[in-house]
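Let's practice the habit of predicting before peeking. Look at the sequence and jot down your guess about where helices and strands might fall. Then scroll down.
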Amino acid sequence: MSSVTEEGVTREAVTKDQMRRFLKFIHDDVVYCKYYEVIYILFHTGMRISEFCGLTMRDIDLEKRTINIDHQLQRTSKREYVIEPTKTNAGTMVIPMTNEVTEMFRAIIEDRPDYKVEKVVDGYTGFLFLDKDGMPLVAMHWEHRFNHMVSRYNEIYKIQMPNITPHVCRHTYCSNMAKAGMNPKALQYLMGHSDIGVTLNVYTHLGLIDAKEEMNRIAKLA
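Done guessing? Here is the structure:
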């Protein structure tokens, strides 16, 4: 199943069944199980990976079950770490968490080592994931991990998994919410789309898929 991206180009969003199978594989794998919470969160919040990488301990409110998204973490070509505004027009989003997403963040926070010195990037500190040098993980780290996980899955199973990236997780979430009938304005807010047209394109695309399936079903009955 494909979905329309912010650039207007179609990009694959995996089916619910593929998402479930991939998550189960990660959950049960002895090597990759440590990434399960992150992958679950990306599939169930639609966050941009740069926004996820920018999250700090202060951005997660487990009591109110909200995530504060008002910045993103990037690493420049000169390997400098910088905090940038989000792509969202409003600049700041507070998105609600489901019970399951809340528990995933709780597990991440509980497992986080107690660092003696915390790296500060443009005034932000307390990032959820740091590398061996104490620097926060950036999008590229997670993209590499996704590549390894998908490759490993496809080595094991005959029915192959399409390429899954953090961006595919985002579009899968968007497609799932649209298919479930979420109000487009609510989905626009959750996705941080500055233009409602981008959100509506997802509904149009899914409507076209549904219409094709319905036509094929009726054609078989005729």
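How did you do? The domain at 2-221 is CATH 1.10.443.10 (hpI Integrase; Chain A).
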